[in-house]
Amino acid sequence: MRASLIQIAVDPDESVDSRRRRAASLVREQADSELVILPELWPVGAFAYQRFEQEAESPSGPTYEAMAKAASDAGVWLHAGSVVEKAADGTLYNTALVISPTGELAASYRKIHRFGFDKGEAVMMGAGEELVTVPVPGGLTLGLATCYDLRFPELFRGLTDAGAQALVVPAGWPARRRDHWTLLARARAVENQAYVLACGTAGTHAGVEQAGHSIVVDPWGEVLAEAGPDEEVLTVDLDPAKVTRTREVFPALKDRRLGLPTPNPLH
């Protein structure tokens, strides 16, 4: 399976509508791939908190409409990154959309771990509660996560238990923590013996410089491709059989021991 990660640049001087059109054009250019991935909150910017309410949309809103048409035109599976979703009760979510080659919404994932501690996304958005996997033709099941989720290994273990063989992580990761980004992407690949496709943004979100450096890691932890800091399209070929081979040759997942009793305190 050929996958393309579109590390789109977010420029605060570019309108959301203009960036949607540009992203759609970039998706259409990836017609030789089977899977295309966009970053987190690329329409508005992951750190543009003051615009979240203004740019919020439904999962079937303008970003979905533009991306569904682009996916259909290119004939690709499209992980369209994420949007600020406004639910029927008014709650905002950071919601990832996966679109089929026919333009249908195949899956959505509300980000579980919200970044910001006591501000920003953490207080403005609701938390997702469901793990989401998506089987795609070609023999891979995708496990969905978003940005800050990368720091929580239990989420990825749950996705692995649910059958994920490729872990897709769109992000708006700050440049000042770029080393964490690549380290954690490789760690999640090694511990789950799965591909990790981590797609970040370039440019600047509300004054926060983005790391770029989208990365694809194989199930053994080898980096197959890594982007630089600027807008770039990263294209790699994935072999679903490599996941099976890695798990058979080095069956570490079989040695997991969960639910061990808590040791008794010394008296």
Give a description of the structure.
This protein is α/β, with parallel strands linked by helices and 267 residues long. It has one domain (2-252): Nitrilase/N-carbamoyl-D-aminoacid amidohydrolase, CATH 3.60.110.10. 25% of the residues lie in helices and 27% in strands. It has helices spanning 16-28, 52-55, 62-74, 121-124, 153-161, 178-192, 240-249; strands at 2-7, 9-10, 35-37, 77-86, 92-99, 105-110, 133-136, 140-144, 166-170, 195-199, 202-205, 208-209, 215-217, 223-226, 232-237. A hairpin with a 2-residue loop joins strand 11 and strand 12. The radius of gyration is 18 Å and the shape is globular. The chain starts with a strand and ends in an 18-residue tail after the last helix. The model has no long low-confidence stretch (mean pLDDT 95).
Key traits:
six-stranded mixed beta sheet; C-N_Hydrolase_sf; alpha/beta; Nitrilase/N-carbamoyl-D-aminoacid amidohydrolase; Carbon-nitrogen family hydrolase; UPF0012_CS; 267 residues; hydrolase activity; 15 strands
What can be said about the biggest beta sheet? 6 strands, mixed
At CATH level 2, the architecture is: 4-Layer Sandwich
Sheet with the most strands: spatial strand order: 6-5-4-3-1-15
By DSSP (H or I, 4+ residues per run), the number of helices equals 7
Give the number of domains: 1
* Shape, principal axes of CA atoms: globular
| Strand segment tally | 15
- SS-based class: alpha/beta
Rg calculated over all Cα atoms: 18 Å
Along the chain, the helix and strand elements come as: EEHEHHEEEHEEHEHEEEEEEH
CATH class: Alpha Beta
- Enter the CATH topology name: Nitrilase/N-carbamoyl-D-aminoacid amidohydrolase
Mean pLDDT: 95
CATH superfamily: Carbon-nitrogen hydrolase
- β-strand percent reads 25-35%
